Amino acid sequence: DVKVTQSSRYLVKRTGEKVFLECVQDMDHENMFWYRQDPGLGLRLIYFSYDVKMKEKGDIPEGYSVSREKKERFSLILESASTNQTSMYLCASSLGGATRPQHFGDGTRLSIL
Amino acid sequence: DQQVKQNSPSLSVQEGRISILNCDYTNSMFDYFLWYKKYPAEGPTFLISISSIKDKNEDGRFTVFLNKSAKHLSLHIVPSQPGDSAVYFCAAMSGGATNKLIFGTGTLLAVQP
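Above: the input entities. Below: the structure tokens describing the complete assembly.
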């Protein structure tokens, strides 16, 4: 079974802090993704990566950056946290090639005070 | 602009009956569609998918139907079980190696015993 592990289930940070969310997958997947889930808005893609050191902006990249130094690890960085970044953050991974389902971690509930 | 729409935020069904969840999309370039199921405090799990070259795909109690001319897909669950109670997301992909998904806003299914 694919395992996507997010480092924290719950996180509370303060406005202006730099926040790191970590994600690790154990199936040698090429693609990794970061989403946020908000009520009534579904899952929205923040950034994705299709290879080590490669990244592409998703639909809502503003205020975020990412890092992928190793194939198994994909980090989401909130450069200066703001209250509107309070959300559920979900990491996913998939094999490369068309029509490969994404496999998700259990999410990090982030609160910015 | 929401390219993938789930117009019913919630659905309640009796155990043993059929559940029908609906999804509409606007982008005719989408060629692969997926359904995910999400329990509270867990990440979404992949349920079933369908390619645009097909109009039906079955997996046990779950069947997905695709009507390309109407840009509509539906997920049928027969018979519904209380353990099916969850949020269901439909998602669409327009191909390519990065498997970028566009998600709908989700439908909360409640199966009453």
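Note for the figure: The radius of gyration of chain B is 13 Å.
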